[in-house]
Each structure stands twice: as C-alpha cells, then as structure tokens.
Specification:
Blueprint lengths: L1 E3 L8 E3 L2 H4 L14 E4 L4 E4 L4 H6 L12 H8 L2 H11 L6 H17 L1 H11 L1 H4 L4 H6 L2
Antiparallel strand pairs: 1-2, 3-4
Helix pairs in contact: 4-6, 5-6
Length: 142
C-alpha cells in the first residue's frame, strides 16, 4: 500500500503496489480503470488489459474482463461489485448499456437469492448515498 500526502494538499497519491494485483487475471479486479499502473522508475503508464487507459480517458466504469469471464468476475467479487459500480456512476462515470444490463440482471439474482446479504453489501458500499440529500447524485441513478 502506498500513501503520499494527506488528500488536502496538491500532491496526493494513494494506491497499491503493482505486485498486489499486477499478476492476477483481470476478473480479480473490480473495474478496468484499476488496471492502469504507473512505473515510477521508467516513467511509463502500464495498461495490463489494453482497455484500462481507454476507460480512464472516456471516464467510463467498465467490467475489467472479456464477456466470457464476466460470470467468474461476479463469482470472485460478489454483489459488492454491483454496488461499487453504481457508486462510480454516482461520481459521474459513464457506462456501457450491455454491461449495465448484465449488472442489473445479476444484482436482481443476488437480491432474490440472499436479500439480507445483498442489502448489507449495498448499505456498506453506498452508505454515503443512503444519507445524502444531494439530488444530483440520486438523479444520476435514474
């Protein structure tokens, strides 16, 4: 884990070292934008999947792996992923319609299968939204 600065200053960096998840398959991560690494020694950006930089540039939250491994992505991350997805949308990130349909379908599946655990995950991930009066954030989810 790397933390430089305190978040209030001009220089702030918070992230994991590349060995934390740099060698795992994409479906072990939550979203594509988290597959961008910066090599301080060589001053280069590393895009492990080849799609992460495009997602960052487009301000798009996207599933980090090919369609044929989406079910594995869900098996690894569980319903927490879906709520984190919505959390990024609230922050203004864009999305792909096919990915949104898949995520909505899987979220409904989790809700039907285990409503208590799914609701608990939602409360944990979206706690700031639950008590928010910010109409723009709420409207973003419509």
């Amino acid at each position: 884990y790397i933390l430089i600065g305190d978040g209030d200053g001009d220089e702030y960096l918070e992230d994991m070292v590349v060995t934390h998840n740099g060698v795992t398959p994409p479906e072990n991560s939550d979203f594509s934008m988290n597959w961008v690494f910066y090599d301080f020694c060589n001053d280069v950006i590393i895009d492990k999947t080849g799609r992460a930089v495009q997602a960052v540039i487009a301000n798009r939250c996207e599933i980090p792996c090919p369609r044929e491994t989406w079910d594995r992505w869900v098996a690894i991350g569980g319903s927490r992923l879906f709520f984190r997805y919505f959390k990024f949308l609230i922050r203004g990130y864009e999305y792909d319609d096919k990915e949104m349909s898949y995520i909505a379908e899987k979220l409904l599946y989790f809700w039907a299968k285990d409503p208590e655990a799914t609701a608990a995950n939602g409360r944990e991930v979206l706690s700031a939204l639950i008590s928010s009066n910010d109409a723009s954030k709420i409207e973003r989810l419509r």
